[in-house]
Fold:
Amino acid sequence: MKEEHPIVQNSTELYHPSPETVAQANVKDPEAVRIEAAKDIQAYWAKRAEELDWYKKWDKVLDDSDKPFYKWFTGGKTNIVLNALDRHVKTWRRNKLALIWESEKGEVRTFSYHAMNREVCKFANVLKSMGVVKGDLVTIYMPRIPETVIAMLATAKIGAVHSVVYGGFSVEALHGRIEDSGSKVVITADGGNMNGKKIELKKIVDEALKRSGQPEHVVVIKHLGIDVMMEQGRDYWYHELMTLPMSKNGLKCETEVMDAEDPLFILYTSGTTGKPKAILHTHGGYSVGIHATIKDVFDLKEEDRWWCTADPGWITGHSYIVYGPLIAGATSIMYEGAPMYPYPDRWWSIIEKYGVTIFYSTPTAIRGLMRFGESWANRHDLSSLRLLGSVGEPINPEAWRWFYKIIGKEKCPIMDTWWQTETGMFMMAPMPAQPLKPGSATKPFPGIDADVVNAEGKSVPVGEEGFLILKNPWPAMMRTIYKDPERYVKTYWSTYPGYYFAGDSARKDSDGYFWVIGRVDDVIKVSGYRLGTAEIESAFITHHAVAEAAVIGLPHEIKGMAIHAYLILKSGNEPNELLIEDLRKHISHELGPIAKPEKIEFVSSLPKTRSGKIMRRLLKARAQGLSEGDISTLEE
Ligand code: WT7
Structure:
């Protein structure tokens, strides 16, 4: 990026909220709440938990007898669906819109809370009839359509555990995730519009299932109306199942009473090894965490129309498209298609059309749309907006200012939220009634204690770069890595014993504002998507021409980071353009278009340590013409 990196360059550039923003804010004095919560963190979270419904109140707020396997609200009985649907349909909100959906072509579907609940109940009965019971795993591999939300809620309602796999992932990524989870059922669609392309999802499922042990059933939603293969006895059409007698009694499906600590979902995310980690979240603490954060940070009100542009397949979608807004009883917008379709003002036209009041998106998207100039935004009435948000990667001040001025018309504060799949909820984020600095996620959420430390775990001085850690547990935290508790302890709690290691570097300025810089491990954030270098390298190796592969992330003007691959070819293979094209196609087919490398270079050797580990740091330094640093462990 040619522009300054979002660091403590300009901590005097402050944006104060307007008096109206402060007057209507759910939290009038964020600093006071942060200080109050820090005095008694458990009392703070107990208070937030009391804002929700429970079948039975908890005995203990936090059980830390088996660190780092923290437990929250133990003894409490709940189900996330109790708060997301059941309690709303008993009130006037049954007539309120829960979801407004628009397809790329402009087709619109809306669901009141009543309608959403009816569809969820019906589909929950379908799942039950397929033998899905409490604790079973269900894989959901879908485009951005209402049925994705219905499937997630129906699974949760009966106490089963969902594993949503982003619809932009492809065969190998899907296969690995289905197999590792041991899913009984896969829910998918014939196809979907993913970022402007028609993706044949069912076809990818068929290929993935050839590689793994077969789940018992596949449920297929007819969305694009394309031809698909249906295997008898295994594959069923959703629309046919939804008319069967057992689903007709829809509204008579009881919500399963769960322990607060029972699993709600697993979500795979990339780490430093080739095998993705299944991050496990639970019903109780997760509900409390996302409820508190969406209410305070995005100041959600009954009248709001909330739009988070993420995909339900990522944690942002789980927490802030599906569960968070529904728990809040809000109206959520979901758009299936690409932001540039048919012109680069599609998003702005959606904001105008539905009167969106809060808009939550990503730095990559903002940078991408910025490129087309402000006239696309200026031809729409964006005056309904009152708050903006950003997530997924650091937002550079230039993009921040454009978002603030051109989209928010200098009256909408931008909530830059720093968090992770693992944290489940915002860890660091401003609140509307506090001053902002472009590029800083500002301060930890109440009850969160963050710090920046050096390799020895000591706090670094103000302005210096270090590792970002979290010093105490929080309700929506991951509980473990599904089937791999050792990796949970090792990855997150062993670098600085007792503290959660996030894998990011950051600085803290003299006002106590945090500036997240980026990943310090072998994770690359491409357009905000999280990919592991090892995962991509493994996919390269499955190509017949490749002997060895090394993958690094390098800065990219729009995507934030981009993938660069260094390959050693097996002898007899010509290093030419044709092969490069074929390799890019191969990665796209195996992992998905998001993993497509920006650049592929053929090399005759790779820098390795004496123990054989690829020194990606060195490749990175060389590619950027930077100092090679300490190379004492280099082989040769
Ligand atoms: C990583 C987590 C949870 C939201 C979606 C991404 C980076 C996320 C920010 C931000 C700077 C950010 C970090 C983090 N990140 N939000 N506001 N500022 N960096 O979830 O895929 O689990 O990735 O995204 O590097 O560790 P994820």
